[in-house]
Amino acid sequence: MLNILLAFGAVMAFAFALHTLFDIKSGITPLLALCVMILTGVIFAMADLLQAGVVISLLAAYGSFAFAVYKNRGGIRTKAVSFFSAPVILFCASSGLMLAFLAVRQPMMSSWDEFSFWGMARKLVKEHDAIYTFYSSSMLGNSIPPAMPVLCYIFQRFTPQFCEWACFFAYDVLLFACMAAAARTAGDSWHRSVPVYITAFLTPFIFRFTARVSYIQNTYISAYSDMPMAFLFAGRVAVYLCERKGLRGLLSVSMPLAVLVFVKDMGFALARVAVFVIFFDSLVCEQAPKGQFFKTAALKLAAAAAMFLVACAAFAGWSVHLSGVSGVDRTDFGGSSQMGMAQIIISGFRQLLIGPADEKFAAVRDMMFSAFFDRKTAMAGSGFIVVCVIAAVLFAAFVSADRNGKKRRAALLATGAVGFAGYYIFHLFLYVYVFRNDAYNLASYERYMNIYYAGWFVMAVCMLAACRQKKRIAGGASLLAVCLAATALFVRYTDSGNLFVSCDENYASFRKNVMLKTDYIRPYIGEEDVIYCYSGGDDGMRWFIYTYEFTDNYIAPDIYIDVYGLEQPEKMEKYQRELREYFMEKGVTHILIDNSSAEFAENFGGLFDVPMNDIGLDSLGYYKVNYTDDGFYFTLEKGGYIADGKDF
Amino acid sequence: MEKISDFVKKIASRQIIAFSAFFLVALFLLRGFWSYAAENISRSNETLVQSRMTVSDFQQISMKADGDRLTSTDSDPQLIWQADQKITNIKFYMETSLYPGEIVVYYTTKDGEGFSENKRLWAHPADGEDNWYVVELGLKNVRGLRIDPTMYAGNQMTFGTFVINEERTLSDYIAPDARRIFNLLLYTGIISSVLRFVQEIFTKKFE
Q: Does A473 reach chain B within 8 Å, measured CB to CB?
């Protein structure tokens, strides 16, 4: 708790310093402060100096605060008053309340990718005090960049143990900082900032739920990177709207940009879209002085190129780190097609534009096309409806803007749409070339698309809030209308704010049920054990939870053995031979049976000294693997029933 | 006219926010008192009656009985009750071998109506009472009720009493909890922004 307050205090202190020393508008300073701290952490982490990096960024934050106070010792009161503008107050208030809520309820991670990567990475980083490229673990996604794990680490650098809800809080602080930046686009008037902030706060809900819910939903209690990416995407454009002049503007905008690239590979795509949006906005937003059109345009192009370079540098930095430390080629996406990035793009565009398209490509393309119109991705409706809503918000902004402002709003609609088309096509390629069977049901389609929709929607609301001087009635009224509509949707779909109903044990029940078993067997697992975990009928979730709970041990990934068309006894013979080879290769010492299955019992049952055929929901078996010259067999180390502790 | 205009101009932002917050608190309290009163009126004219049931009063679907213990045979076991009475809350005792997951409660208010997500609620563990779960319906004429006690197959459940319409105290209706605080903040923000905007229009002085 102390560590959390220390880190949050550092963000505020640094934000205050940025405001007083450089006169940056206070609303965007929390985001910039947080981004600088994350980047410092990431850069040090890549050199395996994570602990030191976090300490340095904390010291630098408090140091700059002391310096700022010292330098402005006369006028500190006025500075403090101007610092605590509406967006900063909203940021502090929501962070404080969220902290109180999380500290009381102490929710735990509960969903799929929190165990496969997003939560797992945070746990590893905390336990090893270094990012995951420097050591081996059971985690599969080692090539994903480390911005979010580092952010979480900042909030628990000095704690003795890994704390799950501290990660949620770290995420929320980043989200709230982006919302404060968005709220700042409304200028100094609090009654415009508040509706923007509320709309932004409700945006994750609006873009997450497609059906009525009133149970706990992990919107602000989540370690997924989707909403942070969406909000960094929007927050960066918001920073640009507030701070767009000169080198200082360029630097400010580059901070969230670099963080965005360091969140996830997809962040690089979003960063490029954001640069594109900003470049066109800067082209149309001001009339160039007569005769200097080309000079101004060239300058703006140079600024956009500089931002693009920052994004590329961030991307390249992590790629170099990966190939240097762990020998991973990041452009190799692997996946179902085993193709490199360039190959995917060339082959994808050829099939899309020229043809002929192969079967999988055509099927996925048609599905993606109809999904845009048919699949409900948000409360409001399908992707098409969402784009219409965004267009309507921008139209309201268009009506309430002056002549120059009209061009900017139209430009955001056009550039956002072009960016979206690119994003959509990019996902088409991902489904075709990287996803396996999941391609045919467009797995996680809503989640991926909503990143863009949510970001674009918040940008549109910023544009609506940013209209100046004239026609303030139209602008203000439509901003309030958007806020009210968002609230109405939220209330309609979540039973009036039931999002905070109890984070009771039931919402994480799947994990807790697996934990009944992990807690049972934990004392019997040795430090050096290499484990193969078998769970019949598991879709992967149980396996991921085991790897998450036993981070100290290596858990060998599941293996697929092709026995199609074979009859017994050839089938059993091949099964056993290949599994033995695999075990030898991975150095497996133990096998953990979480749930048996008929197929497994038939082919391996004879190898166990104590039968495992009946192991199911209420029981567990942990066996030692004994290798012989041409085979292997398993002897029970510990096994029994969870509920009453009775042994087999 | 002039006096009113002067008056409106002089209202400070913090007064607007304070007014909005007080207004909402008053509204919430009023609603709490009203619900409490409505419950007590229904109790006194005996349209709302406290009663007790056991699990055998329900139609059991996807469950296998083994003495007192019921085991779910798939991931969607159901307890269905054809009711015809006013219900405001249900509290029941359930021991389970696995964590049950979301406990969903559907209800209908008309004859021939099917169970749907529009009339769906969640039961939650009762505060400080192990294995007791509560669902609040908020005084409705219920014709059909369905409790889905677990999300998992193979969960062994032992049910105790089902208490229908346990009495509530006034503080249950008005005490601040996370949800009420959240609503208060959300609506204070919206209402005060609207009021400030109206003030702006009224005084024709834009920031």
A: yes
